[in-house]
């Protein structure tokens, strides 16, 4: 599976065997918004579950996404932006603009 971040960046995902459909859908949300764009909790929940769920469901799925990104040895991580949501960021890039 390839996760397209923007026109120039494509991340190869190798650990598909352990990914749930919720994890795949969550990674798709970040792919749609792109790198360094904050995605609100509401937008993630709306796209992934399409019904009201608790924040614990979201936190658990974000944790799984982080594990998949680490196991695939990508340069990306999902970062919590307190009070706003989550952001897919390049962990090798320091000091970039988030928006």
Automatic annotation (TrEMBL):
Name by which UniProt lists this protein: Helix-turn-helix domain-containing protein
Gene Ontology molecular functions: DNA binding
SUPFAM superfamilies membership: C-terminal effector domain of the bipartite response regulators (SSF46894)
InterPro entries from the UniProt entry: Sig_transdc_resp-reg_C-effctor (IPR016032), WH-like_DNA-bd_sf (IPR036388)
A GO biological process held by the record: regulation of DNA-templated transcription
């Amino acid at each position: 599976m390839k996760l397209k971040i923007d026109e120039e960046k494509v991340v190869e995902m190798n650990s598909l065997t352990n990914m749930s459909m919720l994890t795949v859908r969550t990674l798709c949300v970040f792919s749609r918004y792109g790198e360094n764009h904050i995605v609100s909790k509401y937008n993630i929940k709306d796209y992934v579950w399409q019904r009201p769920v608790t924040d614990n469901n979201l936190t658990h799925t974000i944790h799984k996404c982080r594990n998949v990104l680490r196991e695939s040895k990508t340069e990306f991580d999902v970062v919590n932006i307190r009070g706003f949501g989550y952001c897919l960021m390049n962990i090798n890039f320091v000091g970039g603009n988030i928006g």
